[in-house]
Amino acid sequence: MTTSSAIACSRMYNLSPRIYALWDRLFHWLADRSGVELEVIAHAAPAPLSELWVRPDMGAVFMRGFPFSQLSPAERPQPLAAPVSLADWANGQPVYASHIVAARDKQLTEADLAGARWGWTVRDSQSGYNAPRELFAMLANRPSAARTVGSLLNPRGVVDAIRSDTIDVGAIDAYAFQLMAMHEPDMIAPLRIVATTKPAPFPLLVAARQQSADIVDALRAALLGAHRDPEGSDILASLGLSAFAKPDVAVYDQLPIRARAIDAALGAW
Known about the structure:
38% of the residues lie in helices and 21% in strands. The chain has eleven helices and 13 strands. The chain has a six-stranded mixed sheet with strand order 2-1-3-12-4-13. The protein has a five-stranded mixed sheet with strand order 8-7-9-6-10. Strand 7 (117-119), helix 4 (126-137) and strand 8 form a beta-alpha-beta unit.
């Protein structure tokens, strides 16, 4: 093993014990193939993700693209890889989107979104905040301000708010929705997709700035080659992924530009 000080975490997509176990399997495979000893930690909600992203022992941790894009190059953790979903909305690229969801039994269409009560998760989230605002800003019949409820913290909060009729619609990370559809269908059974937002670069796996080059290179090589490894390919399929891709940092740099355009059109929710 190369080190015993690196951590791995998929907190953003730890949607249930069953799904967590699949990520745990991936990280154990990654440790074996890379030769880097990884300690898998939960860092469970409501612990802030921002506390995780500044840890100097990060080895392979999911980071949202929007917070990554807001850091200067000197402050950013080291990008390792970005997932490529098997879902149609990914089109074979390391991108994701947000599904705008409503209660399955509520007669609400995309044309009704302008007058709906919207839920949002946290303001530094592309999928739970910027993406739904971007879609709302593009509605032809929208009022000057939306009726909103937040912060709902995460996709589970959005689901709970819809089920309690606190909101009419909310945004759920399309990849989180995919995982729930695959492994926890009861969680999304009360929901239906009303619309899907524009794509954005997928949250990426990162290592700490302080992490050594040999560790980063070993982890990155294993992730980028996972789809060519029989066990790695099987694990990827269980997570609804086809591969990991090298992140294009320039694409993430477009997220603040998109967010500023939304701010100019709508202001904050």
